[in-house]
Amino acid sequence: MACPDYAKGWQQAVKPYRKPVLAKSIWQIVNTSVPFFLLWWLMYESLEYSYWWTLLLSIPMGGLTVRFFIINHDCGHGSFFQSKRANDIVGFWTGLMAYTPYLRWRHGHALHHASYGQIEDRGVGYFWIMGLEEYKQASPSVRFGYRMYRHPLTIFIIGGLYLFLFEFRLTNDSVNAQQTRGVWAANILLLAIFGSLGWWLGFWNVFLIQMPICFFSASAGVFLFYAQHHYEGSYWAPKEEWSYERAGLEGSSYLKLDPISQWFAGNINFHHIHHLAPKVPNYRLQEAHEQVPMFNAVKPLTVWKAMSYWNLRLVDEKNCEWSDFPGPHEEQSVSSTSS
């Protein structure tokens, strides 16, 4: 499908913002790393006073972990530095700080960018997304499993911890030897780092510090993933009619965040720009949003509104829109017909 009229000229419009600024990239690493290591040590010291202080400090630590992930994410798109080698080195280490194997995740995320909004490839590099008709025709066990997967407790709490702490430790989704080596390198380094910290400071102390950080960062990260595409009116189309521009501007949200939350989120709330132009570094997304008319015309999505869309769990293949689960009578009717 041809580029929509309102989006024509977008490549020229984003061109000034695509170039990374070395000083800003370095400063972002510094202003994320320094408070992270300082707060980690304060969490350790707080264990002698009250664990409530430790838990309180784990909230900004979770935010800083998300910020590390966003730097890793930018490196995966080749947008954080002009040098590919610099992107790969920094991407690996910042990914490690967020429990993410850089090369494996970069590959899956590239597939997501290339296909999101296509009915046939729904969920590639993202959440498991079933079609409404597909769900109706599925066996009761598959429907039950999908309902459990799509439950808010699974998506936002259990799922995030499972993804970052367990699934990312496996090599079964690696497509080549390089990705497999990257996963193993990350696993070995994480084991060495936390093993050394545990030997030095006590394994139970490290667990008490690290688990709430993992909980808050994983939950916040998964919520951001979810809010980026799960909202009423977001773009879906059959593959042969799919538009890259519409998938970016209509299928990816502009999540309105307060300045502090936006800082921790690394500006990824400007997801409509990122999906259209992933070469724009995260620290230039707001600038592009404010100065390019087609971007600032996108209607913002509030956090509260995004949280209300937890029930958008299926894609109606016929109408190209999000849908909730069908009622129990409809499911029973389909099951009877199938049998």
Task: List descriptors.
two-stranded parallel ribbon, mainly alpha, globular, 339 residues, three-stranded mixed β-sheet, 62% helix
Characterization of the model:
The structure is a single chain. The protein has 339 residues and is mainly alpha-helical. Helix content is 62%, strand content 4%. The strands form two sheets. Strands 1-4-5 form a three-stranded mixed β-sheet. A hairpin with a 4-residue loop joins strand 4 (314-316) and strand 5. It is globular, with a radius of gyration of 21 Å. It starts with 9 loop residues before the first helix and ends with a helix.
Secondary structure layout plus pairing:
Elements: H1 10-14, H2 22-46, H3 51-76, H4 84-97, H5 102-115, E1 130-131, H6 132-137, H7 140-149, H8 152-165, H9 177-201, H10 203-229, H11 244-249, E2 255-256, H12 259-264, H13 271-276, H14 285-291, H15 293-296, E3 301-302, H16 303-307, E4 314-316, E5 321-323, H17 328-338
Parallel strand pairs: 1-4, 2-3
Antiparallel strand pairs: 4-5
Helix pairs in contact: 2-3, 3-4, 3-10, 8-10, 9-10
Describe what is shown at a glance.
The chain is mostly helical and 339 residues long. It is 62% helix and 4% strand. Strand 4 (314-316) and strand 5 form a beta hairpin.
